[in-house]
Amino acid sequence: MTSAVGRVGTLAVPAQRVGKLQREGRAAYLFLAPALLFFCVFLILPFIFAIVLAFSDWGGFDLGTLKWAGTANFGDVLSFDGTFVKPILVNTLLFAFGSVFLATFGSVLVAYCIDRLAFQGFWRVLYFLPVVATVVAIGNVWKMMYQPAGLINGVLNKLGVNSIGFLSDASYALPSVTVVQAWASIGGAVLILTAGLKAIPEMYYEAAEVDGANSWHMFWSITLPLLRPALLFVLITQFIGGLQSFALIIVMTGDGGPVNATNVAAFEMYQRAFKYGAWGTASAMAMVLFVIILAITLLQLWVARRRGEETS
Amino acid sequence: MRISRGLRLAVALGLFATAAACGGGGGAAGGSGDKVELTLLSHYSDGPSKEGLDKMIQQWNKENPKVQVKAQVVKFDDLLTTMTVRQTGGRGADIVSAYGLWGGQLMKANVVAKVPDDIATKIKAEYSPAALGAVTTGDTLLGYPTELNTYVLFYNKKILAAAGISKPPATWAELADAAKKTVQRDAKGNIQVEGLSLIQDGDNKSVHPFLSLLDAAGGKFLGPDGTAQFDNAEGKAALKFEADLAAAKATNPSIMPTKQFRSGGVAMAIQAGWWIGSLKTQMKDKYSSDVGVTAIPGPTAGSKGSLAYGFFMGVNQRSKHADEAWKFLTWMNEHKAADGQVTETGKWLADQGLIPPRTADQAAYKKSLSDPNLAPIYDAATYAMAEPNQPGAYEAKTALHNALMGVLADGKNPDDALAQAAKAVKPQ
Predict the structure, then answer these.
(1) Does residue B2 sit at the A interface (CB-CB below 8 Å)?
(2) How far is it, in rounded angstroms, from Cα B395 to Cα B152?
(3) What residue range is the signal peptide (chain A) (predicted)?
(4) pTM, full prediction
(5) A107 lies in some domain
């Protein structure tokens, strides 16, 4: 009897729990509903629409004119005769890799120095200012500095060097814009890396000092390895941002010129869709860029995991 | 199970919200009872262009209480994007003002309605060939021509005189000679005065000056089917002319004439007629003493060329009040101004320094031009090449721009650049 009651009791408890869990689950989904709705309307549905468009011929305006095009858009986009693979995709990768390399290198250096300075808050704010400023302001200031009669050429002229067409010469335009993108994104990376530096226990440095390690050894053997999770985050977010960025390019070179020298994938997509009404081609480009970003991000995560970093 | 149900709910809600967002508005125009409200989307967003259009709309609204017109304006740079987004969302304006170059694209996407036969017949009979050409795709007229611009050669009289040049250039040889004589550089090679500017403001900035030179040489941009026509002897001659000037450093695409000309930083520039209005405002008294305008010369004496581009106002294919929209457009384009000599629209455009597209208006204004510099601009409307606007023309223009910039900024071989641009032109 006792055992029977006990059995009933033990069965009753899970049933109550299940009921409670169901109620909690419903409540949880109810609370999540606004976020899920937002996610669906502004992310999932447009993404599905973009996939449909990538396989369609559509000139915009009227959904009734949408026609199935198979893989023709991808054929056009990935053709080596066109401009997307070279120079646009090549520019995109150079722009992203270049700005990530410069920004990461610069931000590690700046964060490491700030961590050893007085008034750290002031320095962090100073380096964070470009992140707060609008891309339009940053782009226009640098554009003026790059002009033939601008500050940088003025300094070069004083040093006896002839003016350089930083934004008008196809050989200099992309590196010039890449430097600005890196400069503008250092601030955000410095904040994250500073937090990473603060999380490194002081005792490692004290122990290393006792063992006679110099600053370089400490940076190379303690700081850099323990900063890896923060660095990984910075690398991934900056790289994705670099691959998708085009606002700075619009401000600084207007049309991705000269001669497509600063044209990047995101800008070309915008042009194809909104200027030429070639939504199918633009969406196919978006899919290609999506695959590239996904592949590079997975590669970064794989490399980090092989080195035993926490990446989840 | 619960998860899939939750997800289904989220997707259903998402679809519902999207449908609600896209379906809002439904038609292109609103109306309550017998009263019809027409919307007119344009880029006439400030200054005399906005004031003139608003004045006409106010007059119409006063005289037609049952058909009210409401102006919606955006900056020109945002016009095509706004049209795209609003039309796709089912909220397109009843009347759209658009750049002729977009015509093919708008026609292909069923945005602009066919012009009724009686109105089309009248427009074809009463408007100048350049204005009609700029707003006709294939054989299809897109609407009432409004703005019309032609390209001419602007020059600084004082800079030319200081270089010993007493009259404006009349051939390519004279033009090149004048550009090389007037260019000035400092010891570091920085250009102080550019000889001849081959860049215009805005989109695909190198194309319009080149097409004007191409027209002067007797060449064509695109054929009726959208195929490239510029990779031939005339095109090569026009681009070689530009390449020689770039090699001699008499032209530099990084110098914007709209910023440098007024301060004497550019000796000559191939520009559209609308620029006169800006120069008058910016240069004030110096305008009449310094600025001269002449036809863009061709390779031989007596030859000249220009490009004409235009805007039009058409009716949205989705408008529920197309008849009322055409009635308004007909009134707007045909009713006379207070002086009874020209149409109100003609006056509105002429007041902005633009060429009225209607032949009678042009003739009336040409009789008594207040500024002699306007004469070559009006003349150009009689011989200018109309900017092609079939589907794919915009991409073709960008391909040509990239080729031209390769020559002007990067020193590429003109023949190779033209061949590459021609290959990139894909008829649609």
Answers:
(1) yes
(2) 25
(3) none
(4) 0.78
(5) yes
